[in-house]
């Protein structure tokens, strides 16, 4: 169990937020502040091998859920807590809900289903990240130039470059544990299963232009593990629903948590 780096804002009912693959807690800070202003205690965490949290050679959903349990214990979070996770963080949240159902009041999963995910679509991102030579990289522009040889999307590159930081010796590096994430990419796509379903309320939010949650997931995969769940689709949004349609995500979460 690793001690996760986190940021806390606001007071009220607890809402814990987990980012996705290659992300950090910073990805959710705009919405975190809005929920805090609406009367919630919002705790955003960096998952292991991401952001400012510790690195580890182990990157399984069981281990990541245990890390979150440690955070709950550290902060004294009770069973009125809502846990929200996006993408990889959504699978961590599902694993936590199934393993520690008594620690949660509600679950929110953003644009990911329990089923196994084919992670080959991450190959170009991994190629780009691994192509950056930090012995030659003298800053953000040089890193972006190296990424651009593999990743055409400017938006994706800007998202990844949030992981760039300057070390004490003035050299640059990635905050993510890139060797482990590269090695464990298949495990990151693994299916979430459970011996017993999570019976408390769950909200799944998916982007209408994303294929991370499909019709079969809505009919079978999600209800099998989360029978007291609902799926809300935000039209004209892709996988990064919270950055593309923040007002809609804010409203859905506020309405669900306030029920």
TrEMBL record:
InterPro entries: AB_hydrolase_1 (IPR000073), AB_hydrolase_fold (IPR029058), Epox_hydrolase-like (IPR000639). It comes from the Bacteria. Keywords: Hydrolase. Transmembrane segments: none annotated. GO terms for molecular function: hydrolase activity. It holds the Pfam family Abhydrolase_1. Residues 14-246 form the AB hydrolase-1 domain. This is Alpha/beta hydrolase.
